[in-house]
Amino acid sequence: MKKLLAFAVFFLLVSCEIPEAIKTINEDQEKELSELNIELSEQAKTLSACQADSDCSVVGFTPKACGGYLDFLVASQRSNKDGTLSSRLPSNDYLLFIGRLRSYQNRLNDLNDDNGYSTCDWIEPPRGRCVENKCSVQSYMEFDPSLLNNE
């Protein structure tokens, strides 16, 4: 019985170590994902031209391990990366951005499946607004007089 207990303790201690090869891959992935995070944030800023609130799309950015998003980006569905408005809705540049964003999120989700943890609280997405022909976000906590019922 003592040998079995000693073996179980030894097995638990050994199995808790992360092999060095896995650590290196995760560090490389983390660096690559961090760079992609910055690129996507900057790309969303170039897709900001709008004419109406309906042009502005708020998309989840960083997925949480238990669902939902940690943060959000706003981008214009009609904007081209050169700042002009597309007659096509959504614009090709917006579709390319969303494709890259989904790829980034899928990679994060794969990592979360293996190593992830997060709080499971729900973060309310902000509203997209077109202000001075640029998309911006309005937090759900900000007061918006247009939401008042004037009866």
Textual characterization of the structure:
- α2 runs antiparallel to α3.
- It contains 3 helices and 4 strands.
- The chain starts with a helix and ends in a 13-residue tail after the last strand.
- The protein is an alpha+beta fold.
- The strands form 2 sheets. The chain has a two-stranded antiparallel ribbon with strand order 1-2.
Category from helices, strands and their pairing = alpha+beta
**Estimated radius of gyration:** 22 Å
Low-confidence runs: 7-25
What percent of residues are in strands? 5-15%
CA-based shape: globular
Helical percentage = 40-55%
How many helices? The count is: 3
- Average pLDDT metric: 77
What profile does the largest beta sheet have? 2 strands, antiparallel
How many individual β-strands? 4
Output the helix-strand order: HHEEHEE
**Major sheet: order of its strands?**
1-2
Termini Cα gap: 79 Å
Quick recap of the structure?
Helix content is 43%, strand content 13%.
Question: How are the secondary structure elements laid out?
Answer:
Layout: H1 2-15, H2 20-46, E1 56-60, E2 72-76, H3 92-115, E3 127-131, E4 134-138
Antiparallel strand pairs: 1-2, 3-4
Helix pairs in contact: 2-3
